Amino acid sequence: MSAKRPSIIVAWVDQGIGEAGMHRYIKERFETLSTFISQWLYFNLSDEFTSYVENATNNKIISVMSGGMSRLLVPRLSCHICLQSIYVFCADLDRARQAMEGEIKVKGIFTIEDELYEQMANDLSKLLLEEGLALARIDQRSLAKLNYEEAKRLLNQEAKSVEENEKKIRIEEIDGRIDQLLA
């Protein structure tokens, strides 16, 4: 039985982010986070992103938004199932925290690029573990193993902000899941 799993797509919403040549360094860095991210999309306009989310089928969308875009879009779009998680990357931390209070899909508010990158790696590791479990349940062992291995790589190499004890526990869980697949 082969089941198509949802694609993981990252959508970055910020004025100017989608313009050719703009923010090249940050785009290049983040786009190397994981090969399990099927596509990176950049939206300058809130309407384009809204239309994309409203028409998304069988995708898991992870979004990075500026503070202004998050205030405009999160209340309107967080109800969509395809919108997996939201990260706010802004200059005014206090204003963003106040505006995003209670929004469960907002996984963090950041002013520092490295912290955003590490949190995205940590959360993607968790998501890939969940995907691996779902794949194992439908007997897609090889795909499940690939998800587990990528979850482990992200945790080991990219999610530097995770405490060592938590990292050790999560890696042991992943190793146990891989062992179950091989048994």
Note down, in words, how this protein is organized.
This protein has 183 residues and is an alpha/beta fold. It has seven helices and five strands; from the N terminus they run βαβαβαβαβααα. It has a five-stranded parallel sheet, with helices on both faces. The longest helix has 25 residues, at 113-137. The mean pLDDT is 92.
Number of helices: 7
Structural Rg: 17 Å
Output the strand order for the largest sheet.
Answer: 2-1-3-4-5
Average pLDDT, rounded to a whole number, is: 92
Sheet with the most strands?
5 strands, parallel
Global outline: globular
Classification by helices and strands? alpha/beta
Uncertain residue segments: none
Question: How do the strands and helices of this protein lay out in sequence?
Answer:
Elements lengths: L6 E7 L10 H8 L5 E7 L2 H10 L3 E7 L1 H11 L5 E7 L3 H8 L5 E5 L2 H25 L3 H18 L5 H19 L1
Parallel strand pairs: 1-2, 1-3, 3-4, 4-5
Helix pairs in contact: 2-3, 3-4, 5-6, 6-7
